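Support reply, case 0932

Customer input (verbatim):
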Amino acid sequence: MLLGLGLVVLFLVAWGAVLEMRTSFLQSLVFTRLTGDMTFTVGPGPSGNIHFPNGGPYDERLGYARLPLFIEALSAHHFVVERQATLSPQLDRFGAANGYLIYHEKGRAGLTLLDRAGAPLYAASYPERTYGDFKAVPPLVVDTLLFIEDHYLLDPRYRQHNPAVDWRRFALAAAGRGAGWLDPHLRQGGASTLATQIEKFQHSPGGRTGSIKEKLRQMMAATARAYLGGPDTTRARQQIVTTYLDSTPLSSRPGYGEIIGVGDGLWVWYGTDFAEANRVLAEPAPANLARKAEIYKQMLSLLLAERRPSYYLLVDRQALEVLTDRHLHLLSAAGIIDPALRETALKTELHFRAEPPAPLPVSFVGRKAADAIRTELLPLLRAPSLYNLDRLDLTVGTTFDAAAQRRITDVLARLGDRDQVKSLGLVGQKLLGTENPSRITYSVVLYERGTDRNFVRIHADSLDEPFDINSGAKLILGSTAKLRTLITYLDIINRLHGRYAEMSSRELQAVSAKAQDPLTRWAAGYLAGASDRSLQSMLDAAMQRRYSASPNETFFTGGGMHVFHNYERSDDGKVPTVAEAFAHSINLAFIRLMRDISHYYIAEAGPHMKELEADQPDSVREIYLRRFADQEGRTYLNRFYDDFHGRTPDEVLSLLAGRQDRSRVA
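Our regenerated output:
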C-alpha cells in the first residue's frame, strides 16, 4: 500500500517536473512577482541608493561601469548631479548579488551633442547597422539562428516559456561535466541559450563564462529579464533574437575598431550592404539566386563565427569556410533552406574585404564646434580617446547655436573663392591683395553675454582639416599679446574688487592715498565714490580708463631702454580708453598699461621685493642667486655626465667634433 502510494507520488512529481520544464508555469509566477518589485525612480540630486555594474563589455563600452569615475572627475570641475536613479530594495539586492541591474537595455548608443535649443549638433551611434525590432529580421535568418543555437526559443505552444534554460541541453551539460571528472574527453556539451549568451557577452567579465557560478548568474539574470514584462514571454523571446543579432561580438579590425552585430559584421568583413542583405534574404524566390546564396553564406558564417570570432575571422578563415559548408548540409536536411540555395551556396566562396571600410568623407569645417566639445570632454571624463568617447551612452547639452554655426560655416567655406571675397569687400588696401584666398584661414568665435557668464554660440574656422585654429593654435602676435595683457589687467581689477569692495569710503580713501601702484590707487578711489560697487560695473569702468598713445617716451624693459611706435601714426596724439586701444590695437596705450601691471606686482611683493633688490652679502638676493646658480650648474653637469659617461677618449673627441660648427673650423 505504502509502496504504491510512494510510486504514485513519485510519478506525479516527475510528471509535474516535466510539465514545468515544458511550460515554465511556476517559474513565470515566481519571477513575474520578483521582477514586479524590481523598479527604480529618477529624482533630484544624488541618489542614496544606487548600484553600478562591475564591468562587462556592454557596461564598459557604454560607460555605465565607469559612472563613479565620471562623477568624481566632473565634480572636480564644479559639475553637480542634478538627477539620479533610486533603486527599489528588491532591485538593489538583485544588483548587489548579480553585479548589474535588470532593466530594458538600449540596443545601440553613442555620444550626442545638442545645441542651445536641443537640436542635434553631433550624433554617433554604435552599432551602426541594427534590426531594431523583430519584424525587421528576415524569417530565413531567424530560422537559421534558432537551428544553430536555440531550437525551441520561439515555440508558440508555451507562452510562459523561460528562454534562459533549455533543460535538455542543461542535463547533457551537467552529465558531461560529471563524466569529465572520470575522463576529460567526456566533458562536452554546453547549456547556453541565446538569452544566457547575451548576458555573457554583455555583462560577464571579459564577455566570458569563467565558472559554474558565472553560468548560474547568467541564467538567473536572463530569466529575470525575460519576465520583466509579465508571465507571457512571447515578445521577450522575440526581442532576444533581435538583441542577439544586433549585439553579438564579431572581433575587430584595425582602422575600424570593435565590430558588434551581424549588420556591421556584413559590412566590415564582407562589404555587403545591410539593407540589401535583408531585402535579398527576405525574398522567397529571388531574381538572383547566386547573390542570395552569397549573402546567406556570409550571414551564416557570422552566426557560426560568434563561437570563436577572432579565430575564425582573423586566424583561420578556411576553418570557418569548412564549418559553414557543413552547416549548409545540416540546414538543408532540416528543411531550413532548399536544395537549390544549398548547392549554390556550397559553390560560393567567402570573400573577405581586403581593407576595412574607409570612414565617410566629412567636412571638418562643418564639425569644428562639435570637435571642440569632444576634445574638451576627453580630459573631463578621463576618456582615453575619441573612439571610446563616441561609444558612451552620453548626451551633452552645449551653448552653441547650430543654425548660426551652419550659416557662418557656409560663409567661411566660400571664402576660398576670389569672386566671393571681392563681393564681401575683403580686397583692398590693408586687406587682401593678389594672394590666393584659398590659402588664408579665417576663424570666428562668438560669445553672448549672460547674467553671470558668457556663452559660446559660434566656434568655426575655414580650415578643412582636423586641426582647430581657435582651440589648438598658439599664436605669437601683437593682437594676442594685447589680449593676454587685457586679461591680466581685468584679473587684477577682479582681485582688487574682492579685496576692497566691502570697505567703507573713508577706509578706501586711506588705501588710495597710501597705494604704491596706479591700479590699486585707481581701484580704491573708484570704489570710494561709486554708487554701484558690483564687479561688472567696476570692470566696465576699468575698460574706460585712458592711457596716452604718445611715442615721446622711452620704456625700461628686460632688454634695456626701448622706444615703441604705434602701427598707425594717426594714433600718436590720442589718449584712448582701454576698450578703444584694444579695438584699434594701439601699441603705446598698451605699453603703458603693461607698465602699470608691472608696478602692481612689484607693489604686491612688498618688503620681499626690497630684500631681493638689496645687493648685500647674505641678503635674500644673494641666497636666491646662489640657489639658482647651483641648480643651473647641476643641470648642466648632469647633462654633460649623461652625454660622456662610459665613452672612450676617442668617442668623446668624436662627439665634441660633431658638435662643432663646421663653418668656424679652419
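We compared this against your earlier run and they match. Two observations from our side: The radius of gyration is 37 Å. Residues 602 and 628 are 21 Å apart (CA to CA). Please reopen the case if you see a mismatch on your end.
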